Amino acid sequence: MFSISVNDKGTIVLSGRFDAAQVDTAREILSSLDASAVVDFRDLDYISSAGLGILLATQQRLKKGGKAIKLVNMNRMVRDVFRIARFDLIFEIE
Q1: Geometric angle at alpha carbon 55, from 71 and 87, rounded to 5°
Q2: I want to staple 79 with a disulfide (CB 3.0 to 4.6 A). Which of 40, 49, 74, 84 is the partner?
Q3: pLDDT tens digits, 38-90
Q4: How many domains would you assign to the chain?
Q5: Range of the structural domain that residue 61 is part of
Q6: CATH number, position 25
């Protein structure tokens, strides 16, 4: 199961498995971003290339306006996916 929500601090919180079946759900929230934001991966167990793609599209769109998303609280497996895909060079990961 996947969920994406915005908490009371404006942080986007991901949980579960972010795969191709979840892209439309994520796109609803991520496409509405018009300012820099933090995306919390604390409860995310898995991310597929489709999940990476929607995050990349969001980052590229925001960068055009001088904004960005920062990714926080990744577990080791998800961080390795970002490193192998070289997305650690595209995103600020904390």
Answers
A1: 65
A2: 74
A3: 999 999 999 999 999 999 999 999 999 999 999 999 999 999 999 999 999 99
A4: 1
A5: 2-93
A6: 3.30.750.24
